[in-house]
Structure formats: structure tokens, C-alpha cells
Amino acid sequence: MRRRAIVASLMSSTAVLIFGWQLGTSGATVPTYSPGAASDSSATTPPGAAGSGAAEVFAGNVVATRFGTVQVQITVASGQLTDVTALKLTDAGNQSVRISARAAPILRSEALTAQSAEVDVVTGATYTTDGYTSSLQSALDQAGM
Question: 1-22: per-residue pLDDT in tens?
């Protein structure tokens, strides 16, 4: 029974990531993501290294919440936040997965509009919002923004 729950959780997390990724990349260029590089900040270009306006990718810290971990990745070009991708969202149960799936596109949109991690809490998704904005802020700090 436990094995089935773990498999279901992994499948749900994957579905949320794919769904959120598809929403977040419609009409935009797709950033390259390597699972091994997500938590390794050395895989990103150092801040200020690309003066030509080339896009740089920064993975935020993995943030633990009551309902699972959250991690985001940002793309920065010419000093502007151009994309935010949720690499990991809360997944402690089906309700947590549903909440994260609903909140992620809203948080992405608000972060891109604000060009910062200063976004409103998504109603009903407080833990997801807190984890998302903490990971986002760490990625922005790495980018020197």
C-alpha cells in the first residue's frame, strides 16, 4: 500500500510539473533543465558574466514546507526576469498537489509582473506561496537582482 502511495505521489508531482511547465512556456522559449543541475548552483552562470544579454538560468534553494518541498528556477535576460519555472511543488497528498497546481501559474505570473519575489499570497495556498517566494528570492539573489 505504501509503495502504491509513493508511486502515486511521484506521478502526481510529475503531472503538476508538466502541467505548470506547459502553462508557463506557452508562446515562450523553453529553458533547458537538467535534473542533476537543479540543486547545484554551480551549474548556472555567475551573475554579471553574460554582458551580451544572453539568458542565464538560476535555481533557487529547495524550501521545506509543511506539505513538501518547493523549488523554482528563473531565467534572466538583460537584467530582466523572463521566466519562472517550478521544479518542485508541495506534494504531501492529493489536495496539496491540487493546491500547488492551481497556485503555481498565478505565482509565476505575479513574479514576472513584479520582477521580484514580492507577490501576494495565493488564497488557500499559503505554504506553497511561502515556499515558492523563498526559493524565488534565493534564485533572484544568485542572479544579483
Answer: 666 666 666 666 665 656 555 5
Give CA–CA dist 52/86, Å, rounded: 26
Determine how many CB atoms are found less than 10 A away from the CB of residue 83.
20
Residues 6+ apart with CB under 8 A from 28: 82, 83
Cell of 141: 539573489
Question: Do 135 and 50 meet the contact criterion of CB atoms below 8 Å apart?
Answer: no
Question: What cell does 56 get?
Answer: 542565464
The three cell numbers of residue 103 are: 497556485
Please tell me the distance from the alpha carbon of residue 120 to that of residue 47, in angstroms, as a whole number.
27
| Spacing of C-alpha 131 from chain mean position | 9
- Please state whether beta strands 63-65 and 68-77 pair in parallel, antiparallel, or not at all (unpaired): antiparallel
pTM of the predicted protein model: 0.64
If we measure between CA atoms, which residue out of 11, 28, 2 comes closest to residue 91? 11
Does residue 57 contact residue 88 with C-beta atoms inside 8 Å? Answer: no
pLDDT at 119: 93
Angle at 65 between CA 64 and CA 71, to 5 degrees: 55
